[in-house]
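**Protein record**
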Amino acid sequence: MLNNRGPVKIVDTLLRDGHQSLAATRMRLSDMVPMLQKLDNIGYHALEVWGGATFDSCLRFLDEDPWDRLRVIKMYLQKTPLMMLLRGQNVLGYNHYADDVVREFVKRAVYNGIDIIRIFDALNDVRNLEVAMKAAKQEGAHVQGAVVYTISPVHNTNHYIEVAKNLASLGADSICIKDMAGLLSPYDAYNLVSALKENVQLPLELHTHYTSGMASMTYLKAIEAGVDIIDCALSPFALGTSQPATEAIVAALEGTPSDTGIKKEELFPIADYFRNVKKSLATEFSLNTAIDIDTKVLSFQIPGGMLSNMLNQLKEQGHADKYQEVLEEMPRVRAELGYPPLVTPTSQIVGSQAIANIVFGRYKIVSVQTKDLVRGKYGHTPGKISDEIRHLIIGDDRPIDYRPADDIPPQMEKYRNSLIEKGYFQQAANVEDVLSYALFPDVALSYFNKHR
């Protein structure tokens, strides 16, 4: 029995997470523009169009300025709010940045068209979200605080309620359950949504992936429990490791109290267009876009894209035969490192360390990132790291117990001066170029060499 208090709202991830999940984030702005006005008329709650890996991909692979992409999309989408995904103090990169970089990035993102910013931290350490959330509020954006969902002995309903309450206290306008690996089962979704709705009086959104094959069922149970908004992707860029298909969810809810109000027939021609886009991307970039569900994620809790990346990494090193051993090592490493949720950047840290452990011996080689995680430079790990493992990885170094970014002095002026010294600007550098350079120095310089 659907007892949602009203129509379910849909955020379509086609233009960000959909092609990030199934086409390695290779969709160009020119692929999007012909359908933007039609998408604008559908009646979505929002369209997710920016953030995540799109910024890096624009500069690295597509020869596009991500800021220009955002401005053009905003020019066409006059009715539908634009959403982006932000990694808190990591912004869109893989390290923590100084507070002035975070504030300036948020300011420019909102100025150029972002209406809703979904902000998360890989460890659910809300100290890493404070600056970004306050900056977004100050700029007038809708701030969505994300609770990263995973499964471990230390992750339970009480943990998620506490994180959500902390996000609310920081001024979140809504809360998102971010299930990046597709681990949330239907009945657990019902219980978690019910608990969050009871304890936090804010609109609640659910984001999951189809990786395990449960996502559509999970959405239906979440809707029964009263979730307000769900993330879907138009069918050509749905399923596999992406989100449930928008058209299917719209059809499933027709005629119920949760009817989305979206007319699925209006989606069909748009889907036909993007089906051809996906085919052309697959050909041009030699992509496998027909990604099957993989229920192994429920055992190893490894996001689907990470599985293929690990296998490729092992093949390149000549150790493809050790794939199964690495899969079994991953949960051990994750437990020893305090049960971090497997999402950027912690998924890469745990995965790389698991490979090193199998190839070279357990913790014989330890990456800088693993050491930083144990030192607390990414924030509090959800679980305790034993003294034995800590000593093995960082020796007698003392972990930090304060907000990691407190150690980072202001960076904007340094990056600006660096660009001027390199001869890219006669005077003060364009602030958006400075931000691009701060996040991805090498690829930004390569882009500037060609276009500046």
About this structure: Strands lie at 9-12, 46-51, 82-86, 116-119, 142-148, 174-179, 204-208, 229-232. The chain has a mean pLDDT of 93. The chain has 20 helices and eight strands. The longest strand covers residues 142-148.
